[in-house]
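Researcher: Please predict.
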Amino acid sequence: MIITVGGLAGSGTTTAAEVLSKKLNIPFISAGDIFRQMARESGMSVLEFSTFAEGNTDIDMEIDRRQEKIAKKSKEESKNLIIEGRLSAYFVEADIKIWMTAPLDVRTQRICNRESKSLDLAESEIKFREKSEAVRYLDIHNININNLDVYDLILNTHSFNPDSIAEIILTTLKVI
């Protein structure tokens, strides 16, 4: 089984994927980790790399290629996998595609706590990043990130902890 988990920054996609991975005892990969790794390799912050990526479609294409390649290999080997990333659902043939969201103030607080940033800085970075990504996704792939039609399950994570989110997903998996 291949599961994609996508969502807005701070909505809990990575945490939910990690918890789900442990509960199902299957691996997961993260597009965010790939992006951050590529930023480090380039000697840039995530925000700098995000701006750089706006003018360099090869960045997004490489992230997509890496995810797609890993997913295809897992499917060919009949291995289960969770793939976490904003656009994973568009490039990975998955059994279930999940989108996670939460209000901006909740996401800001989560990122503020996780990255030890001020609320103002975290919020401005979220807004900048989401605007930057929306431009790139539309330009490169003709994907409107706000169109959620590709997803099978959409979760507002505001009221749920990571274990509860994983349980919602596990319950959904039982009926598909």
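Model: The mean pLDDT is 91.
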